[in-house]
Write a structure and sequence with these properties.
heterotrimer, A alpha+beta (about 160), B alpha+beta (about 80), C alpha+beta (about 750), A: about 160 residues, alpha+beta, Ubiquitin-like (UB roll), 2 domains, 5 helices, about 15% strand, C: about 750 residues, Aldehyde Oxidoreductase, domain 3, 3 domains, seven-stranded mixed β-sheet, six-stranded mixed β-sheet, 20 helices, about 30% helix, globular
């Protein structure tokens, strides 16, 4: 099968790759661009572990084809921190023990960052519904929700 | 002699007795003595058992000491998730 | 310095809440999980699976796949070791079917190709000819006289005669005389319960990267709860030497018991041996559901007698568990855990391990115990209702304590059930008013915990820091807790210690991270290895001062003379001793290799408030409190995390999760959309109370905490639903259709 040539931007870097028309954005990120921070938990858009933003829109990268990234701007978990300075969400997730195994963490961080950019002052219910597409099997979500609420409060104070 | 209480499912292998007596100074000797005296118990012991000695559950250590007055129970082998 | 002493107070690091050492890696995407490894020239593998619940495999034609230039190897059962017996044979039979496919999803062949898509395409070209056979997936039906025999001769010697050939193991235990006990009761309730199979539901599918050369030397990278077990099993299944296989455990994206089992590593190794290239094999979610370990499903009969005052006079339980097409459903644990919270004079429990055409069950957090608690605690609750008694007071009245003869035989050592019940009774949650339409439920739960073979190594560095190597994959924050224990013993800051999960070539054998054993056993090992190192540090100080080793003590990171008689010397720090260790006798390292026995059993009491929408049948958990005995909480935040995670999994099991099989014996809900685990909007905050009743078998009193937290929720929620909706659900999950059905039945009298 002939490959498709794609030019896109990932985490601020211009990148090019060749992909099979059937390959998902997730496949491309992991297997072609060595960005393995984005995880595959289901491949059907149910678990959210593969969450990335494409032109600032939150998507499951397992549901988007690699070829569809042409000309877009993609942000993954690897693009959240500013160099060696962690994003406040990242700091807070560690402090609150809002992760155990950590496999869902990249997706949850990407999704939460997208939420706080849209809504800097969410209620607990809004956070819970926003993250309803990100499965976590370890934590019972308690510490995740607390970390998000506290980060949002801190970021509001700082801005 | 050490008195060993079996789980009741094993009674059919010891002529109906749930409590049996064997000579043993540690868990390994106990299991050997049980299999010697009641050969029908051998497959169960080989498949793996735990031994409770005075309330402490020994899952694998054959060298754990047993006193003549110890309270000893044979238990099914313990594992976990 | 003595190695054996207990420490119960004056902790400096233990009990604090430092950040986890893997935190930054996990929030930045750097942490490497099972599927995150790549090797030069590696191939990608795909597995061909049976679409039938039970079928003879007549032929496998691999020629079309092998004709593709992208395909480098195809394996079937013929590519694995022959002549295996016992559990190794069972594992191989599950990893790759022999002459019969035993369940929907059973592996039949595998292919390695140059890309993941090429491997998937090639798998579709492998033609398998099946002859379907009658199948059975329900536990009660599998025991019935007309059930198809899944494997003749699989029963062991424990099974009494006269039972169906699908009953492969039997358990019976107890003490006293239940008939007499029931005669003494004022009320006796007898009822039957069922629970459906659930999956551990870890978000990371099984994944590995493997390489095996013609010289028999191999490497495996995989997500597993026990890489030493992977090494042992792979060596057996491939007919090679254990020590020639080096297995490295990746970060593990959840396990909960489901990654104690070997599924794909031997397949990847067999493909690699054939192709002479590294092979990566990653399961899809649907493969995880169809072919890896769900729990057993159960059918249970419970009978309990109680006096008017609330004293239980006798208890009896029959527990039937199907564990798929292989022996091993944990019915003995179900039986042994069932009545453990109660001090009983008359108790009897019977267990049946039953084969069916489902995947081989795997351990899931306190395997077997939650189902038992569901059935038993539901009946206890009904008795309390009937007698107008407070459910916590009744449990307190009957609670097991130190010296109680356990329902499974021996006497309990020091345990904390009463303390959890008292803490639950005194918790504001228990006395908080309920809103209209809400009900409150309570339940106790019990799990044994485990020790197991353990080997660790602690190396000091010249700069006064320390590296701890352990062989138990970190499934719940154990690297932090183990580092804290080393810091406590060495008297250096937590941040100066790095804990690594070492590969199989580095340490002696380590049992799997299961049985809530890691903080207990690897923790005990880390303490003892630290004390071993401290002994050596003290000896170096003694040599320098020219005094006896016994005259040196270790305090807060310094060697000091033990008293005025020992002489007057300036204390020397760990860093000072370590900086010259090469010149004063060589490197200093501490070791521990043993099988700690004395894990210390664990109890929990949960309180839950639920409301039921009687129109839709949907249940919402509105408030939840976990009270559990941790013995000693090394890192309280991570202990809370275990409590909360167990409760959440229990909530899913109670309300929504189940394996649904069609008439054709095929799994109907093999994706997360249809097998719905709790999501953030389903749950409330989960409150926790850590009770600390020290375990005499650990230097600091640690008890495992990982598993017990999933035992009470099923029953606690069933009891809450009963109080909220006025109907007793006896079949899990209490999904909306089942609740609706129960409400309808009640309305129709």
């Amino acid at each position: 099968m002939s490959m498709i040539h794609v030019t896109t931007n990932v985490n601020g870097d211009d990148v090019e790759f060749l992909c099979d028309p059937r390959e998902t954005l997730l496949d491309v990120l992991r297997d072609k661009l060595a960005l393995t921070g984005t995880k595959e938990g289901c491949g059907t858009g149910d678990c959210g572990a593969c969450s990335v933003t494409v032109d600032d829109r939150l998507v499951c990268s397992c549901l988007m084809l690699g070829a569809e990234a042409e000309g877009k701007s993609v942000t993954t978990v690897e693009g959240i921190a500013d160099g060696e300075n962690l994003h406040p969400l990242q700091e807070k997730f560690i402090e609150y023990a809002a992760l155990q195994c950590g496999i869902c963490t990249p997706g949850i961080l990407v999704a939460t960052k997208a939420l706080l950019e849209k809504n800097p002052d969410p209620t607990e219910t809004q956070v819970r519904y926003w993250l309803a597409g990100n499965l976590c099997r370890c934590t019972g979500y308690d510490k995740i929700i607390r970390a998000v609420m506290d980060t949002a409060a801190d970021m509001r104070k700082a801005s | 002699m050490v008195e060993v209480t079996l789980w009741s499912g094993l009674k059919s292998f010891t002529g109906g007795q749930q409590t049996v007596e064997v000579e043993a100074k540690n868990v390994g000797e106990l299991l050997e003595a049980l299999a010697d005296k009641y050969p029908a118990l051998q497959p169960t012991i080989e498949a793996g058992v735990s031994v409770a000695v005075d309330g402490k559950i020994i899952a694998s250590s054959l060298t754990e000491p047993i006193n003549a007055d110890s309270e000893v129970f044979l238990l099914q082998q313990l594992k976990g998730g | 310095m003595a190695m054996d002493h207990d420490k119960t107070n004056g902790f400096k690091v233990v009990g604090t809440r430092p950040n986890r050492p893997d935190g930054v890696d996990k929030v930045t995407g750097r942490a490497k999980f099972g599927a995150d490894a790549y090797a030069p020239g590696m191939l990608h593998a795909a597995i061909v699976r049976s679409p039938h619940a039970h079928a003879r495999i007549l032929s496998i034609d691999t020629s079309k796949a092998e004709a593709l230039s992208s395909v480098k190897a195809v394996v079937t059962r013929a590519d694995f070791a022959e002549g295996l017996t016992g559990e190794n044979w069972n594992i191989l039979e599950n990893v790759m079917a022999g002459d019969t496919a035993l369940y929907d999803g059973h592996a039949v062949a595998a292919v390695a190709a140059t890309t993941p898509l090429a491997a998937r395409d090639a798998a579709k070209l492998i033609k398998v000819e099946y002859e379907p056979m009658p199948h059975v997936t329900d536990v009660d039906k599998a025991m019935a006289a007309d059930a198809p025999i899944i494997r003749a001769g699989a029963a062991d010697s424990s099974v009494p005669s006269g039972l169906h050939a699908n009953v492969v193991r039997y358990h019976e235990s107890g003490h006293g005389d239940v008939a007499t006990g029931f005669d003494e009761a004022d009320v006796v309730i007898e009822d039957s319960f069922k629970t459906e199979a659930t999956h551990q539901g870890y978000i990371e599918p099984h994944a590995c990267l493997a390489q095996l050369g013609p010289d028999g030397k191999g490497e495996v990278w995989c997500c597993t709860q026990g890489h030493f077990n992977v090494q042992k099993v792979c060596a057996a299944l491939l007919g090679t030497d254990s020590s020639q296989l080096r297995v490295t455990a990746s970060e593990i994206g959840g396990g909960f018991g489901g990654k104690t089992v070997v599924f794909i590593e031997p397949v990847a190794l067999a493909l690699s041996r054939k192709a002479s290239r590294s092979v990566k094999l990653v399961m899809s979610r649907s493969e995880v559901f169809r072919a890896t370990g769900p729990t057993a499903s159960t059918s249970m009969d419970i009978k309990i007698g109680m006096t008017r005052e609330g004293r239980i006079t006798a208890a009896e339980g029959i527990f039937r568990l199907q564990g798929g097409a292989f022996p091993g459903a944990p019915m003995e644990f179900t039986a042994m855990c069932a009545f453990a919270p109660y001090d009983l004079n008359n108790v009897r429990q019977i267990g049946y391990d039953v084969l069916s055409n489902r995947p081989k069950q795997a351990a899931y957090r306190a395997p077997g115990s939650p189902m038992a608690a569901f059935a038993v605690e539901s009946v206890v609750d009904e008795l309390c209702k009937k007698l107008g008694l407070d459910p916590l007071e009744v449990r307190l009245m009957n609670a097991s304590k130190e010296g109680t003869k356990a329902s499974y035989g021996p006497r309990f050592d020091r345990i904390g059930l009463v303390e959890t019940l008292e803490a639950a009774r005194d918790h504001p949650h228990y006395s908080a008013p309920l809103a209209e339409g809400q009900g409150r439920g309570v339940s106790c739960g019990f799990w044994f915990n485990h020790g197991g073979e353990t080997s660790v190594s602690l190396a000091l560095s010249e700069d006064g820091t320390a590296a701890l190597s352990v062989g138990t994959p970190d499934i719940g924050g154990s690297r932090a807790a183990l580092g804290q224990m080393v810091a406590e013993e060495l008297g250096i800051p937590y941040e100066k210690i790095r804990t690594t999960i070492a590969d199989t070539a580095t340490l002696g054998y380590n049992e799997i991270s299961h049985g809530s054993r890691v903080t207990y056993a690897s923790g005990l090992a880390a303490i003892k290895a630290s004390r071993d190192a401290v002994q050596k540090l003290c000896a170096r100080a003694a040599a320098k001062w020219g005094i006896d080793e016994e005259a040196v003590v270790w305090e807060d990171g310094y060697a000091k003379p033990s008293g005025p008689n020992a002489g007057s010397f300036e204390p020397i720090s760990l860093a000072e001793i370590a900086s010259t260790m090469g010149q004063t006798g060589g490197p200093i390292a501490g070791h521990f290799e043993a099988t700690p026995e004395g894990a210390g059993v664990s109890f929990a009491t949960h309180i839950v408030d639920a409301e039921v929408d009687d129109e839709t049948g949907q249940t919402k958990v509105v408030r939840y409190t976990v009270v559990q005995d941790a013995g000693k909480a090394i890192h309280p935040t991570y202990v809370e995390g275990q409590f909360q995670g167990g409760a959440a999994q229990g909530i899913g099991w109670a309300l929504n999760e189940e394996y649904i099989y069609g008439e054709d014996g095929r799994l109907q809900n093999s994706i997360f959309l249809d097998y719905r685990i709790p999501v953030a909007s389903d749950l409330p905050m989960i409150d926790t109370v850590i009770v600390e009743v020290p375990n005499p078998g650990h230097p600091y009193g640690v008890r495992g905490v990982g598993e017990t937290s999933i035992c009470p929720p099923l029953a606690a929620i069933a009891n809450a639903v009963s109080n909220a909706a006025g109907v007793r659900l006896k079949h899990l999950p209490m999904s909306p259709p089942r609740i609706r059905e129960a409400l309808d039945q009640q309305a129709n009298g």
